[in-house]
Structure formats: structure tokens, C-alpha cells
Amino acid sequence: MKSSVETLSPTRVRLAVELPFDELKASFDAAYKKIGAQIRVPGFRPGKVPGRVLEQRIGRPVILEEVVNHAVPLAYDEAIRDNEVRVLGRPEIEVTKIDDGDLVAFTAEVDVRPELELPDKSGLAVTVDDLTVGDEDVDEQIETLRERFASLVTADRPAETGDTVTLDLAATVAGAPVEDGTAAGLTHEVGSGQLIDGLDEAITGLAAGESATFQTQLSAGEYGGQTADVAVTVRTVKVKQLDELDDEFAQTVSEFDSLDELRVDARERLRQVKLVQQGTQARDELLESLVAAVDVPLPESVVTGEVDWRRHAMEHQLSESGGTMEEYLAEEGKSEEEFFAELRTNAEKAVATQLILDGYADLEEIGVNEQDLTQHIILQARRYRMPPEQYAQQLTDGGQLPSVMTDVRRNKVLALLLEAATVTDRSGQPVDLSPLRRTSGESGRPTEAVPDDDAGPAVDPDVDEATAIPTDNGR
Hints:
Oligomer: single chain
Number of domains: 3
Shape: extended
Number of helices: 14
Distance between the termini: 39 Å
CATH topology of the largest domain: Trigger factor, domain 2
CATH architecture of the largest domain: Orthogonal Bundle
CATH superfamily of the largest domain: Trigger factor, C-terminal domain
Number of strands: 11
Radius of gyration: 32 Å
Strand content: 15-25%
Order of helices and strands: EEHHHEEEHEEEHEEHHHHHHHHEH
Structural class: alpha+beta
Helix content: 40-55%
């Protein structure tokens, strides 16, 4: 087999491949076997018809077509390996010549990973917000504890915002009861907006035993999009009774003996939260700076695939919640053109980010071993509240392991870049992110490698020798 590569652009190449007939025996055998199993020839068992008999029966061109269909994908894979082409996505293949008895020739155009000029990791620097925990932050945390452990006592007055009420609901559309639209004994905090639109306004001012009727638009079900009449009756009205802030309160809500000890613990917990926020900000700032600094030619087919993936994900999310794209655009105050322009911008950023991380992973020779993969699976299984074995089986059954390996590889290289980067706060003080790495539960992974907004199926380096782009995860 002969093959050559022509560079069409920084992100696209054309392979030219010639296959001599003397290398096609395996493909002829496969073609005879496949076709022979599909037809009946008197005197021969299915699948045992000799090739010459098949050619006499159905014609040489049919055999050649099946031979080409079998041989070309195999030859394409061999060509990209021989020429060390790092492909992205599916190729556009054109058979240019079938010279019976001599050779088969074809071309394949495919997107490839571009060569990038990456900054030396030792020169990377980012600035994050100062880590400060003020007394007001601690006060707010303690107040949250008071709210959580508050007692509920019956209020001899109409319901107000912040009260907890017990109520009954019954929804109808044009007089017909709505399926699953009746409930009794529901507990609801007035003003929280947790149940249905219009409820809080309807029950504010109602005392126990009083009723009201209001209208709301249903978002899903048989009557999705229609206006329902909802009858609501308040059964009880209760108000939160907050404990006094003293040592007894601290002993009730924690393992500490005094309020001062509780405040010290709250301050340290807040410091840990803000340290994680600093780590997340450092990650985001680092990726933003790399995307701005590195000239990344973008493979159009990969960007298009990312745009499509994001659009379908948005449409699915809206469908699950009973909404429509038109309603979403109206709520956001965006035109369809503005939405898709923003979608494409985010997709381009995602592709650029992942190509940069993959480039550094190659440069630093980052690999993924069994321990890396196991730790990732354990953490993700915990996130989805399922046994690690079950989660791993789902990944295997769904063919998602290559994409997971890619995610882990990017996480590892980002951790390496963050470790090498100079991270300072806005006061000029150095920021130590090592506690995050020590407590993350996954070696070299202080934060997610790519921000959620940039997550998607965009680019997977582990398909360098494949003809498809797997989707994430993760996603």
C-alpha cells in the first residue's frame, strides 16, 4: 500500500492511498463470505459458495463494490497510523480509481489537530481575588444555622413572607381536574417560590382555614402551556422561633461547647470554601489567558459538532422542563441570531481550550493509568450516588471510556499547569493551591479541568486513529 498526505490547511489534510490487488485477498475473502451467506446457490451450503461461482451468479462489479467497502476503511486507518496523522472526526472518502486486477485508489479529507505554539508553563501567571473572611461573613453563617435549627410555632395571624404553612391544592383546566394536580398537607415557606407561580401571592394574608383561588400556567403534562385555576386552602400558619445566640445554642447545633468555638469553626469553613473559589478562579483565569495567548486554528467540523451538541442539549433541557426555545429566548431577551452567535462563540472557546490542553498533555507526555481512571470513576460514582462498579459498567456499555480517559488526561495536565503557574491575589500575595490538590481525592486534580460552560464532546485526542468523535461526560 502507498499513501501520502497533502496539507490543505492547518486543520485539514487530504490522504491519497493506493491499494494493489495483491493486498486485497482478505477483503475478497470477506466479500465472498458476506455475499455468499445472503444468496442461495443450488449444490452449495450458505456461505460456502466459491468466489468464481458467486461472480458468475451476481457479476464481478458487485463483488468489487463489497471488496472496496471492506478494504478502504482498513486502509484509511493504516494510512493515518503510517503517516502519524492526528485526526479529528470522520473523513470524507472518495474512491478515485478501481482498476480491476491492478489497484484501488481513494482520497480521504479529514480534520486534524493543529500544531500549536504553547507558552512555557513556567511563565504562566494568574491573579485571583483576595481570600478574606470578615465578621459579617461569619455572622451570616451563624444566622443560617439559626434558621436551620429554628422551631416552628403556630401563629395566630395571617400568613406572611417567611412563614411556614400547611396547605391543600386542587388545579382544574376549564373545570376538568388536572392529573396529579391535587395535593393535601403540603408544607411550604411563603415567599420561597418553590411550588407554582402565583401561589405565594395568593396565600399571603390568608389565615388558617381560609381559601383563595388563583391562576397559573402549567409547564408540563396533558395541559402544558394552558392556564389552570388553582384552589388553595391554608390549614396551618407557623412562624420560625430562633434560638438565642449563646453557648447553649452552640452545643445544640454542633460539637462545640461555646459560641466562640463555633464562630472559629465557621470562619475556618468559610476560608476553605473561599480557597476552593480561588482555585476555581485560578483555573478559569489560566484557561482564559491561554485561549487569548495561543493562536488556535479551529477545525470547522469539530466546531460545528460542538455547536450541534450544545443546541441539542439545550433543546433537551427545555423539553424536560416543559419549555420551548421561543419562551427561553423571550425570557432572556435574545433573538435567535444572537443566541446562535453566542452558542458558536462558546463552542469555539471550548474547542480551543481542549486543543490547548491536549497540546500540553502531548508536550508533557501525560498519560492515564489504571489508578487515575479508578479514582475518577469512584468520584463520579459518588457524585451520581451509585456503586463504582455500576458506573464503570455504564461507561463501558455506552462506549464512553475513551472520552473519560480524555477528561482525566486534561484534568491531569491542567493540574500540572496550575502547579507551575504563579498564582497571586490582587494584593500581590502568593496563593498556595496545594491544599486543594491534597484534599481533592484525585491525584493532580484540584479542580475540574474544563469549566462546565465549556464541557462538551468537542475534541478527543484518543480518536487520533479513529473515524468518529466520541461525546463527553460526562456528558
